[in-house]
Amino acid sequence: MIHQLIQVIESIRGKLESYRRLSLKETPTRTIIIDPLLEALGWDVRDPDEVQLEYPTVDGKSVDYALMINGKPTLLVEAKSLDDALNDVKAITQVVGYAANDGIVWCVLTNGVKWKVYRSVEKCPAPDKLMFEVSFDPHETEGLTVQQIAEQMWRFSREEMAKGTLDTIGEQTFTDGKVRKALDSLVREPPRAFLNLVRTLVGDENLAPQRIKESLARVWSQGQPTAATEPAVPPSGIVKPDAQESRRSAGARKAWETRKGKPPKRTYDEAEHTFGKPQEVLELYLGLDRFCSSLGPEEVEKQCRAKHIGYRRGKSVFCSVHLQQSGLRVWLKLKYGRLENAPDFARDVSATGHWGVGDLELGITNMSQLEESKPLIRMSFEASG
What we know:
six-stranded antiparallel β-sheet; 12 helices; alpha+beta; Aspartate Aminotransferase, domain 1; six-stranded mixed β-sheet; tt1808, chain A
């Protein structure tokens, strides 16, 4: 079934520039792009028992599509025109609110090419309920194959929605984020009862609470995001780069340039890479971050650059990562031609311009691909010693 979706995506991609020149409004976007994609995902848009058009909401308005399983709406889809960037907070809040008020867990905001999938039941601002985002715009999906894009979209196919696949992935992803935040708070400001419990488990009643607290901070810091992103904001613990600080940096550079001196080197932090990314991408990144740091807690140094985050061992960067809206692009210092059974999400970029350090690029869009990547990351780490 997924092969049909791949064919539809490829067909739309081939005509995308001409569609954009026509500036398709919402109705033609639905007819020309969205309807064929929903059909390829197994949803019969002509069957009202399967797809209810102009689904009524509690406030008397309507959502473009309600995708039904056993007569019950399981996913709301709100369509926009092709050139809509889908960044309007009011529009996001509206469709997420419609779903939440009607007890529907999942909703999508789409312009036909970009599909933003939200889990409406999360207790956080509507934009932070973004579970994942998938696009087949070639300018937004560099490093990803059409197969990978189709696999991401297939999660909200009729077949997978009936299986509850999206429910399982969504619950795990958001729960992991909330538990991680709770553990971070517990370790950074441990209550006395927690310190006493640790001392009991250690089996050393002479161990002072302050020593336990300091040890917890050291142990927890290994593989955790850098201090630059320490402030916790639900659901991911990542904050937007401080606007005032950005203005100060820009002002300092301008002052140097006015004096005809060399401007100070711009510094970047983790928040500039993680802000606004879907929850699944954040979990992928945090998993990669923990693994890279665990390879050598005393050796690995993380450095944030303009377009990527690098992991250095000594003078050598063994892993670089760029966070996209749909996944991670990871570069390793390995030769593609020397790999046995390279994964299908790997490619040789030795003759292609790219941001990170290394000739092997991995396009990672899910946890199973991250797990498959770990032996290669370890190989790159060991080669850097």
